[in-house]
Amino acid sequence: MNILDKIVADKRKEVALRKSLIPVKQLESSVLFGRKSPSLAEALRSSSSGIIAEHKRRSPSKSVINQGLNVQDVAKGYEEAGVCGMSVLTDGKYFGGSLDDLLLARTVANIPLLRKEFIIDAYQILEAKAHGADVILLIAAILSRDEIKTLSETAKNLGLDVLLEVHNEKELQKSIMPSLDMLGVNNRNLKTFEVSLETSKSLFTQIPDDFVKVSESGISSVAAIQELRQYGYQGFLIGENFMKTDNPGAHASEFIKGLTS
Ligand SMILES: O=C(O)c1ccccc1NCC(=O)[C@H](O)[C@H](O)COP(=O)(O)O
Q1: What is the C-alpha end-to-end distance of the chain, expressed in Å?
Q2: Which InterPro entries match (predicted)?
C-alpha cells in the first residue's frame, strides 16, 4: 500500500465517523454556508503574482515543517503579502491540520480559501462550504471520472471553485470536463514523493486554455515561477518554502516583490 492508498483508507473511516456525528442539515444551516464565495480562478487570471500560499504544519514527505505558528497570523500575513489565495490543509493525521484551521483563517482573511483535503465524498464539500472555503481540491489519482464529475458539480452548485489535480497524462485525459475551473499539475509524485518541475513543463500543452493552469509543489524560487509562466501557468501553489520560516507572510511578501519588480 502506498501513502496515498493509506491516506484514502483512513479518510473513508474518518468521513464515515464525521457523517455519523454531524448531520448534513447542521452543515447547511451554518452561517458561512450562505456566504458568496470569491473565485480563486478569477483572482489568478488577473494577478501579477499568481501565488496560492499554503498553511502546512507537517507532511508525509517532510515530517514536521512548522508546528509553532498560529493559523490566523499566517492567514493575515499571507493576505497582507498580496497572495491570490490561501490553501489550508485540513487533514489531521498526516498533515496536522483541521477544519478549525479553515474556520480560523476565514475569520481574519477575505482572500479565497482552498480546502486542501483528500476529498472522496460530497459530504466533505458541504463541510468545506460550512467552514468558509471558497475552493475545493479534487485529486485525479484517487477518483474515477464519474466521481470527479459528481463531486465537481456538487461544488459548482454550492458556488465553489474547483481545482483538479493531476500528476500525469492519463489522469489529465480522464479528468477534463466543464465543471472544473483550474487544472493543477502536482510536481510531487504523491506515491513516491519525488519532486520535479518537469512534470508541469511536460503536461502544459495538454491542458485546454479554458482552464487556469496551476503548478503545485516543490516551488521555491522566483526563477522557477518565471520559467513556469513561459509554459502558461498562472497559479503557483507554495507550501513548505513559506511555512518553514518563522514568518510565512513576510516571506511570501518578499517573494511576491521579487516576482513583480
Ligand atoms: O507534501 C506531501 O508530502 C504530500 C504527501 C502526500 C500527499 C500530498 C502531499 N502534499 C500536498 C500538496 O500537494 C502540497 O502540500 C502542496 O502542493 C504544496 O507543496 P510544497 O510547496 O512542496 O510544500
Answers
A1: 46
A2: Aldolase_TIM (IPR013785), Indole-3-glycerol_P_synth (IPR045186), Indole-3-glycerol_P_synth_dom (IPR013798), RibuloseP-bd_barrel (IPR011060)
